[in-house]
Structure formats: structure tokens, C-alpha cells
Amino acid sequence: AVQEMRVKYRWEALDAENAALEQAKATQNAYELEVLSNGDTLKQLLARSRYVLYKKPSDWTDSQRERATLLFDRYPDLKKAYDLSQALSHIFENTTDKLYGLARLAKWHEKVRQCGFKAFNTVARSIQNHYDTILNYFDN
Predict the structure, then answer these.
(1) Which runs of consecutive H residues, i.e. helices, occur in the chain?
(2) Measuring CA to CA, which residue among 112, 119, 2 is closest to residue 53?
(3) In sequence order, which residues have a C-beta less than 8 Å from that of residue 129 and are 6 or more positions away?
(4) What are the residues whose beta carbons fall under 8 Å from the beta carbon of 30, sequence distance 6 or more?
(5) How much is the pTM?
(6) Per-residue pLDDT tens over the stretch 11-69
């Protein structure tokens, strides 16, 4: 779900850059790409952030941390989606009891519902439809 949002924003950035380039040509003005503080253009930021979004913040390198800050400042929805995915991972990594697992998954599901991200709704529904089987994970 997080990667889907990243790709969507990447296409939007491409469209915006192409429109700006066409406008510059039409007005015969020079077109200058926006270069971010880490040296990336917006397209590069979105392309290179893929690996950042697969990792936990504790595993980020310094350049990935800087890239994540730039990315999340520009795309707050992406930060929300990333936080939701990390929260779900945290549940499975740190819960060893079915009852706590059920409660934490229910709270996570409520956060997903409040955010309104369609891709996460699919994941949340799948978890909800298979609670019994998924909760067995916490026994082992």
C-alpha cells in the first residue's frame, strides 16, 4: 500500500515536471529543476525512496534518514501510510499473546478506518476475515 502511494506521487511529479517543461518552452523561458537539500530532484527522491519505505527507521542509513525526512515533509499522507505499515509489523514482531494480538489488531484496524486509505482497507478486511487463523500466529 505504501509503495502504491509512492508510485502515484511519482507519476504526479512526472506530470508536473512535464507540464512545467512545456510551459517553459511555450514562454521561451529556461526551465530549472527543483533540487532538494540532499541533491535529489523530486523524481529522484520518489524513485530512491523505495528502499527507505521497506525498512524500519532504526535500519536507515544517514542518507536514507534525510531522504525520508524530505519525502514525509512533502507527502504527509505517505508518512501516515508508512506509520500504519510499521505499526502492523510491530504488532507481529512484539506480541506473544492472542488476546493482546486481537486488541492491537483491532486498534490498528480502527486507525486504518480513520485514515481512509483504500489499499489499507483491503489489508484490514483480510485480517478481519481471518482473525482466528491469524491469531494462531501469536501462540507460536
Answers:
(1) 2-27, 42-48, 50-54, 62-74, 76-94, 98-115, 118-129, 131-135
(2) 2
(3) none
(4) 24
(5) 0.79
(6) 677 777 777 778 877 888 877 778 889 988 888 888 889 889 999 999 999 999 999 99
Task: Assess whether pLDDT exceeds 80 at residue 1.
Answer: no
pLDDT of residue 94: 93
Q: What is the rounded distance in angstroms from the CA atom of residue 110 to the CA atom of residue 121?
A: 10
Which of 114, 47, 37 is CA-nearest to residue 81?
114
| Residue 55 DSSP label | S
List the Cα angle 46/64/54 in 5-degree steps. Answer: 70
Task: Enumerate residues 6+ apart whose C-beta is below 8 A from 76.
Answer: none
Note whether 67 and 103 are within 8 A (CB).
no
Rg of the Cα atoms in the chain = 19
State the Cα–Cα distance between residues 35 and 41, nearest whole angstrom: 5
Where is pLDDT greater, at 73 or 29? 73
Beta bridge partners of 41: 35
Q: CA 67 to CA 72: how far, in whole Å?
A: 9
